[in-house]
């Protein structure tokens, strides 16, 4: 068996593939935010018992987690101290001297995770060429260690100037501190977390990693102990922000790499499903209970970035380019001071949840609007496991409608429209604003609430096709289950694009390859399952930011130079609208991505039996002042090549799909719903 688990703010999802080409077991249960591991183990026990399966047959257990992200947002992190070169302890607060938003004069950056009295300076300085300007004094470190013992810090992070290229002083400092401090106090260096230039981003990433070491380490220890208790023999694999997996050992050492793992896992699941169905150009839309995540995949490849914001802090790690906005099923509708309807970003979450859950929620949410409109089952969700109180949805929306001075139906439609407008804006930012026409892509929709809003989003963007996978609410768990081991190493080189620069590039590549081979050995990746990709960061001289380009180091110097020039000018034109072929190009860094291709279970196909009829009808509102007697289909009973003409509702355990009037849908051999959007 192959097991994938994704823990969200509202639900914990489990996917189990028996690898027989037929059975994919899915399970969804409410998350336990205070102890996320409990929902995982309880869900797994329930599934194994109900299906009469043994935990000893689990070959791989993969897990995507938001524990780190939530800890940073809630500021429930470990106590961190910072040791840096003299004169740089305020760098975390100075940053880039930019405001979070241009037009809000009062909004400030979040308070640094390291209190000022715990940012300590030492007499150390290396120059940009690596020459020693001020030596590191061990006596200062002895005094610092005495102070930090009294402060009871959890982790110490060492951030020296220019250590991305010359890490010697950081390594010596770490060695001395480890000898002076108790073993329970972790000591790490910025050069070990992500050795790139731009000291502010490097310092910030190292501090974030240090803040999460205690939190995620404790969580993974609890999870590992519980999995062993129920008989799982194989080590848990953790999803990374880049979409790949890493061992628990790596996750405990570099927890920051798992900080954005949930959205990345969904993109990986969408990638595998879309390629199997024959689609390479897609825009993904993942709508959960709290947020909506979008990503663009061109020619079967997701866009990757190295710099993101996490809880307001800059972070330098390899990650998939996923744009998140506060629009989900639990997003709360409210009236702003201008008297206009707003939806989100505040969410009702799992507790108390939308009003219709009858768990104490009083505010109208997107889910309540869909219940009132008849788009969602008005009696229960999750195959009857979660009861729905329609009257509570009606009551809270009627109250909102009175404040807006509109009919309740118009208020409910307005909630859905406003929420979808937020999703449309997120997609435009990764498509139109980057030179891509959304109408040339297919909208690949997943998440528990995605299929409810796909049509409105697609119409607004001019998209004609929508793909909804067989298990959209569990796709992130499925993506984790099918991912490969991966890591990335990078080295800043700052060299010219010429023969001598390529020689330096190759020398740096050989050093990185040694680290890659060590990683393959540590992760026990067989030789036949190893893959390596090289890329560079390049820019025109004088520019502040670089573009990432793939590179083939097996070619001769002349061909490498010519290919880099051609690709760089092309990418620069695409990203910035112009290219200058007379300008000199500078290579900023060299990166290598290593992949350990794990065995993946086969995707199940649906049967080609007799076409199934609707299981019932429900009055549904698709537009104002129009009600439709809408047929309801059971998703599990649909067969390959079955066609459905809208309006229609397709219900399943993890989501509900709506097909608008005049739209049509066909079920492909993999069980995907291919919806054609008609004018």
Give the SSE map.
Elements: E1 2-7, E2 11-17, E3 24-30, H1 36-50, E4 60-64, H2 67-73, E5 80-85, H3 91-94, E6 119-122, E7 125-126, E8 132-134, H4 138-151, E9 155-159, H5 168-180, E10 186-189, H6 190-193, H7 199-229, E11 236-239, E12 245-247, H8 248-253, H9 261-277, E13 282-287, E14 292-298, E15 301-302, E16 304-310, E17 313-320, E18 323-325, E19 331-335, E20 341-347, H10 366-372, E21 380-381, E22 386-387, H11 390-404, H12 408-430, E23 442-446, H13 450-461, E24 465-468, H14 475-482, E25 485-496, H15 499-522, E26 530-540, E27 547-551, H16 557-576, E28 585-596, E29 616-623, E30 626-634, E31 643-645, E32 648-651, E33 656-659, E34 664-667, E35 673-676
Parallel strand pairs: 1-4, 4-11, 5-6, 5-9, 9-10, 13-23, 23-24, 30-32
Antiparallel strand pairs: 1-2, 2-3, 7-8, 11-12, 13-14, 14-15, 14-18, 16-17, 19-20, 21-22, 24-35, 25-28, 26-27, 26-28, 29-30, 31-34, 32-33, 34-35
List keywords for this structure.
679 residues; Dna Ligase, domain 1; Rossmann fold; nine-stranded mixed beta sheet; single chain
Describe the structure.
The chain is of the alpha+beta class and 679 residues long. Among the domains are: 146 residues, Rossmann fold (3-Layer(aba) Sandwich), CATH 3.40.50; 112 residues, Dna Ligase, domain 1, CATH 3.30.1490. Helix content is 32%, strand content 28%. It is built from 16 helices and 35 strands. The strands form 9 sheets. Strands 13, 14, 15, 18, 23, 24, 31, 34 and 35 form a 9-stranded mixed sheet that branches. Strand 23, helix 13 and strand 24 form a beta-alpha-beta unit. Helix 2 crosses helix 7 and helix 12 crosses helix 13. The protein is globular and about 80 Å long. The mean pLDDT is 90.
């Amino acid at each position: 068996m192959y097991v994938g688990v994704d823990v969200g703010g509202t639900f914990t999802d489990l996917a189990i593939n028996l690898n027989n080409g037929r059975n994919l077991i899915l399970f969804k249960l409410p998350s336990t935010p205070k102890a996320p591991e409990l929902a995982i183990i309880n869900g797994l026990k329930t599934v194994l018992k109900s299906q009469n399966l043994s935990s000893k047959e689990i070959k791989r257990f993969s897990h995507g987690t938001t524990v780190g992200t939530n800890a940073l947002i809630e500021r429930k992190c470990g106590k961190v101290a910072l040791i840096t070169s003299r004169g740089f302890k305020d760098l975390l607060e100075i940053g880039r001297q930019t405001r979070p938003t241009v037009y809000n004069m009062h909004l400030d950056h979040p308070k640094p995770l390291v209190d000022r009295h715990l940012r300590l300076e030492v007499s150390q300085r290396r120059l940009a060429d690596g020459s020693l300007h001020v030596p590191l004094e061990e006596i200062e470190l002895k005094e610092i260690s005495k102070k930090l013992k009294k402060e009871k810090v959890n982790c110490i992070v060492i951030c020296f100037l220019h250590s991305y290229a010359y890490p010697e002083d950081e390594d010596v400092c770490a060695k001395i501190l480890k000898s002076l401090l108790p073993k329970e106090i972790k000591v790490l260096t910025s050069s070990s977390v992500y050795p790139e230039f731009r000291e502010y981003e490097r310092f910030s990433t190292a501090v974030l990693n240090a803040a999460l070491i205690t939190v995620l380490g404790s969580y993974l220890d609890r999870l590992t102990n519980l999995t062993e208790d129920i008989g799982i023999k194989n080590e848990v694999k953790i999803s990374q922000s880049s979409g790949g997996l890493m061992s628990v050992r790596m996750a405990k050492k570099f927890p920051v790499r798992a900080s954005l793992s949930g959205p990345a896992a969904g993109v990986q699941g969408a990638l595998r499903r879309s390629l199997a169905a024959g689609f390479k150009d897609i825009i993904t839309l993942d709508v959960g209970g709290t947020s909506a995540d979008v990503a663009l995949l061109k020619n079967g490849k997701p866009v990757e970035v190295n710099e993101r914001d996490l809880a307001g802090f800059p972070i330098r790690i390899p990650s998939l380019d996923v744009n998140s906005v506060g629009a989900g099923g639990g997003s709360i509708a409210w009236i702003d001071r201008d008297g206009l309807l707003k939806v989100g970003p505040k969410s009702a979450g799992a507790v108390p949840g939308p009003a219709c859950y009858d768990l104490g929620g009083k505010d109208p949410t997107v889910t309540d609007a869909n219940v009132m409109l008849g788009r969602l089952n008005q009696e229960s969700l999750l195959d009857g496991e979660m009861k729905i109180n329609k009257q509570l949805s009606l009551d809270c929306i009627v109250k909102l409608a009175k404040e807006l001075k509109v009919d309740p139906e118009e208020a409910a439609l307005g909630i859905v429209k406003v929420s979808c407008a937020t999703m449309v804006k997120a997609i435009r930012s990764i498509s139109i604003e980057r030179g891509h026409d959304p109408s040339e892509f297919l909208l690949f929709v997943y998440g528990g609430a995605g299929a409810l809003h796909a049509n409105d989003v697609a119409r607004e963007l001019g998209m004609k096709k929508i793909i909804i996978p067989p298990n959209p609410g569990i796709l992130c768990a499925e993506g984790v289950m099918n991912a490969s081991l991966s890591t990335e190493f990078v080295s800043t080189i700052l060299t010219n694009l010429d023969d001598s620069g390529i020689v330096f590039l190759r020398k740096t590549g050989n050093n990185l390859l040694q680290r890659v081979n060590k990683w393959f050995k540590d992760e026990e990746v067989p030789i036949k399952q190893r893959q390596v990709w090289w890329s560079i960061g390049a820019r025109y001289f004088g520019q502040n930011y670089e573009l990432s380009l793939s590179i083939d180091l097996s070619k001769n110097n002349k061909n490498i130079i010519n290919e880099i020039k051609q690709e760089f000018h092309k990418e620069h034109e695409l990203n910035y609208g112009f290219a200058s072929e007379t300008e000199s190009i500078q290579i900023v860094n060299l990166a290598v991505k290593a992949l350990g291709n794990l065995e993946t279970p086969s995707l199940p196909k649906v049967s080609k039996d007799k076409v199934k009829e609707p299981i019932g009808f429900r009055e549904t509102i698709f537009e104002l002042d129009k009600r439709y007697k809408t047929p309801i289909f059971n998703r599990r009973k649909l067969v390959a090549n079955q066609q459905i003409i809208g309006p229609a509702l397709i219900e399943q355990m993890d989501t509900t799909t709506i097909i608008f009037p005049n739209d049509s849908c066909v079920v492909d051999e993999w069980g995907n719903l291919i919806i054609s959007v008609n004018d």
